[in-house]
Amino acid sequence: MQTLTRTAIAATLHCLTGCAIGEVLGMVISTALGWPDAGSIALSVALAFLFGYALTIRPVLAAGVPLRQAIGVALAADTVSIASMELIDNAGMLLVPGAMDAGLGDRLFWGSLAGSLAIAFVLTVPVNRWMIARGRGHAVAHHHHHH
């Protein structure tokens, strides 16, 4: 039971890494371009998925899995986790008054982003735990890491 929870925490930290990279990069780009909230969120979510999948594909490819199959592994391993994290994270950013309008040099922006990612992490761990317990989610990627 503890091993399952530890695995879920590790999987969620992995997801958090890709999501955070995508979120920050998306916010930086969209802020620099003066995009509205919807464009900023769309870019950030797209980049979160891109980086999340890339972080999974890399070790799967290193294990000798062909690219097409590695992409399938990443989709199976991370889609629900990234979607959960992004939904919670972006909802958090939208719920904090002024967070989306705050500039990159503003503490409100970074505090809101850090807080919403932390909440997303806590709420996504049980999602990943449930999936891993059923041989889904990150369990799919781990199968390829060991072979």
UniProtKB/TrEMBL annotation:
Residues spanning the membrane: 38-57, 69-88, 108-127
InterPro entries according to UniProt: DUF4396
Keyword Membrane annotated: yes
DUF4396 domain boundaries: 6-136
Name of one Pfam family that matches: DUF4396
Source domain of life: Bacteria
Keywords assigned by UniProt, alphabetized: Membrane, Transmembrane, Transmembrane helix
KW Transmembrane (keyword) present: yes
Protein name (database record): Uncharacterized protein DUF4396
Annotated source species: Actinoplanes teichomyceticus
